[in-house]
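Researcher: I'm preparing a figure for a lab meeting and need a structural model of a single chain. I don't have an experimental structure, so a prediction will have to do for now. The sequence is pasted below. Please return the structure as tokens so I can convert it later.
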Amino acid sequence: MKIFVYNYREFDEAVFFQKFSKEYEVELGICHDDPCMENAHLAAGYEYISIITTKIDEELMAKFHELGVRMISTRTIGYDHIDLEAAKKYGMKVSNVSYSPECVADYTVMLMLMAVRKMKRIMQREEINDFSLPGIQGVEMHNLSVGVIGTGRIGQAVIRDLSGFGCKIYAYDHHQNESVAKYGEYVDLETLYRTCDMITLHMPLNDDNFHMIDAEAINKMKDGAVLINTARGGLVDTKDLIDALESEKIGAAAMDVIEDEFGMYYYDRKSDILSKRDLYILRGFPNVIVTPHMAFYTDQAVSDMVKHSIESCCMNEKGVKNPWEIV
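Model: Understood. Here is the structure written out token by token.
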């Protein structure tokens, strides 16, 4: 079978694509760029395409359908960048991948520690030989109540890791997991907002939770609460977050994702003028850390992403049950 790969990265993915394409006897087509109307024709003759976090809207979906593509596999856990209604309209299959939850869990805990120990300001000061103490006093994790919203594989790993710090842990999810009870307590969102010193987000983005962290939710939180987001930028209303940071209702934030990050992250844009005003504002706060959607980025995760994307396409070709199928 044949798979056409967009966003093919020579510096990290290539070794795994070559390894697993041989293992699964798959012929690869390669494009280093995002899929778009201008390069969609390259996928002609391929029934399967593999992408990363790049927008697939209805126009592009229709074009791929016209070219004979039957399935789009995104090498990511999240799939909000794909128009699923358009996929259903054109009878296109869509799948995602899974990878070890430890990569995002590790990164989340790192951001938590950096936020509560004011590491951004410490590092900025050290660069200019300012070794003074005022303004950089931190807090200790064991004194904090932490709320984990979303208790899938990543949320569960974060909860397990936090238990080692001695935090009081609260959790919220529509679907409760028994393993969480070993370390924390499920509560409703109102209680979580009201009770927790730190809140961390770990769920996919959909219409129901878009901007779930908005002014109304923030006003229910403790004064000075810390917000961590390594999930999806659209979960947080950025403008409401900026207002809360300016009023000091939110005491600190660490964000690995932001709204409208498409076309920016994973590219060298240092000489470009970016129309990302909210990003510039967020980066200007001394108590806000913004990283470029990197929580997943480990050797194990990249290997898993490539392997599972190829496996997913092969399963669909064979007509066997595909654990990564979305539609």
